[in-house]
Amino acid sequence: MSIFEYNGSALVAMVGKNCFAIASDRRLGVQLQTIATDFQKIYKIHDRLFIGLSGLATDAQTLYQRLVFRHKLYQLREERDMKPETFASLVSAILYEKRFGPYFCQPVIAGLGAEDKPFICTTDSIGAKELAKDFVVAGTASESLYGACESMFKPDMEPEELFETISQALLSSVDRDCLSGWGGHVYVVTPTEVKESILKGRMD
After folding, report:
1. Right CATH for 3-199 from 2.60.120.560, 3.40.1360.10, 3.50.50.60, 3.60.20.10
2. CA 23, CA 184: separation in Å to the nearest integer?
3. Could you state, in order of their start, the residue ranges of all structural domains in the chain?
4. What is the model's pTM?
5. Cα(143)–Cα(89) distance, integer angstroms
6. Segment 9-19, tens digit of pLDDT
7. C-alpha to C-alpha distance for 54 and 10, rounded to whole angstroms
8. pLDDT in tens, 32-88
C-alpha cells in the first residue's frame, strides 16, 4: 500500500460562473480501519482562497500550518491577501524544497482571482503544478472522481447547480472507494459569500 493511501481521501475542486466549489470526504482511517468520521481536509486561507490536502493526514496538518505562517507573513509585508496564482506558486515552492523527504500530500488549490475569475490547480508531492479550467481531483478516490466529473461537468454553472454537481460527483465516487467516504464537506465560494455544507453519505 502506498503511503498516500494510508489515511484515505477524496478531494475535488470545480469551477462555475464567477464561482468555484471545493469538496472532500470526511473519513480518517488507518488503512481499512476508520478512526474518525468528521476529519477536516479543506482549509480556508482567506475568504476567496481554499486549499484541500489529501494524502497522509499528519503531513497535511504540518503543511497547512506552514502555509498559514507564510501567508500571514505575506499579509504583514504586502498588506493584502495573496492571489490564488501566487499561493499556488508558494505551495509548489514549499513542496519542492522538501523533495528529498517530501510531505506525502497532494494539495488542491481553489480561489477567486482578479475580476472574480475562478482559479483551480493541484500539485503532486514535490510541487509540480497541474492547472485546469474545469475541475481537479486528488486522493484515493481520484479515478472514480475523474469519471464522475467528466460526465457531470458543464461550463459556466451557477452556484446552486455547481453545488449539486460537485456533491453528486463526490458521493458517487466515494461509494466506489473503500478508503474514503463517510459523508462529504462542500464549500461553494462566490464573490460575495462562502457557503459551507455537510453531506450525508453511506456509513459503511
Report:
1. 3.60.20.10
2. 7
3. 3-199
4. 0.92
5. 26
6. 999 999 999 99
7. 7
8. 899 999 999 999 999 999 999 999 999 999 999 999 999 999 999 999 999 999 999
